[in-house]
Design brief:
- With 297 residues, the chain is an alpha/beta fold.
- It has helices at residues 17-28, 48-59, 82-88, 120-124, 140-146, 157-168, 195-220, 227-250, 255-267, 280-296, and strands spanning 5-10, 37-42, 64-67, 73-74, 92-100, 114-117, 136-139, 172-183.
- Strands 1, 2, 3, 4, 5, 6, 7 and 8 form an eight-stranded mixed sheet that branches.
- The radius of gyration is 20 Å and the shape is globular.
Length: 297
């Protein structure tokens, strides 16, 4: 009998084996029946986090698949979600995460919501969200049908993977039920501050945006264009472009460097930003970015 859930844990390089054991313990203490789940600890074969996750996808045999980073862990009662997965059979289910700084944290209990969307594009066209793979259950058959894989040997491989998944997904389930404990570790790759790493992160973010843009262009040129998918990706690209500009500031780029990177965005048609009122926060930011673009780019 195939397992219901495959749990993929990338583990490679300088990852902490103690934290990995904590992660594994949190899974094995879930009380799930033997054979109903499988754990895949995946090596990257020198291809980074995306390579390790792709290795896990290839090895997985479960109906659903989820990704857990080795320095994080799962809260108890994961199987509570399974009845909803069986009821709605979504291509994607997004759940809640809680940031923690130690083991044993228990999320506060309240009335959890379960919202069903007819498509992932419908959800993405109305909402901003964290583009992290570890915040989702994915139908394995859905990933295989569409050939969804992560970009390898780069940072920000989650963002375009998740955007493409939402774009192509049919039934999509969204809940605020807490599943994932995100452990803020100083050794995590997202907290590295070396100059070479910071520049690679910026360049990889630019590369990720280009991949999402290429997907949008391919959808727009398709004779069987689906307007909701185009609308959703356009919204997502505008938010990713803002995030990229924030990354430039956060990584202490000089004015000349910022202008150079923004000129590339402009050449690719990503600036100026859309004047759609996506949210009040977006409404505050886009006029400033567009004014700067007109004056200096």
């Amino acid at each position: 009998m195939s397992p219901f859930i495959s749990i993929v844990i990338p583990f490679y390089g300088t990852a902490d084996p103690v934290l990995l054991q904590r992660c594994l313990y949190s899974i094995r203490q879930q009380g799930m029946e033997e054979g109903s789940y499988e754990i895949i600890v995946a090596d990257d074969n020198g291809k980074g986090l995306g390579g390790a996750r792709n290795q896990g996808i290839r090895q997985a045999t479960g109906t659903y698949l989820m990704f857990v980073d080795a320095d994080d862990y799962l809260f108890q009662n994961l199987s509570y979600c399974f009845s909803y997965l069986l009821k709605y059979t979504p291509d994607i289910c997004s759940f809640q995460m809680c940031e923690v700084n130690r083991a044993g944290v228990i999320p506060r209990s309240f009335n959890y919501k379960w919202e069903v969307y007819g498509s992932g594009a419908e959800y993405m066209s109305k909402n901003n969200f964290m583009g992290t793979a570890w915040r989702h259950f994915f139908s394995r058959s859905f990933l295989n049908i569409h050939g969804l894989v992560f970009a390898e040997s780069c940072f920000h491989e989650d963002e375009d993977f998740v955007a493409k998944a939402y774009c192509l997904a049919s039934t999509t389930l969204i809940t605020d039920y807490p599943v994932y404990a995100y452990f803020r570790s100083s050794s995590s790759i997202i907290h590295e501050r070396a100059l070479q790493v910071r520049l690679k992160r910026l360049n990889d973010f630019q590369g990720m945006i280009s991949r999402v843009r290429n997907l949008l262009c391919s959808l727009e040129s398709d004779e069987k264009i689906i307007p909701m998918q185009v609308k959703a990706l356009r919204r997502r690209l505008n938010f990713l472009t803002i995030d990229y500009i924030r990354q430039m500031r956060r990584n202490k780029c000089g004015v000349r460097e910022i202008n150079h990177r923004m000129s590339i965005l402009k050449a690719e048609g990503l600036l100026p930003l859309s004047d759609e009122w996506y949210s009040w926060k977006y409404g505050l930011v886009y006029p400033v970015v567009n004014a700067y673009t007109r004056l200096f780019i």
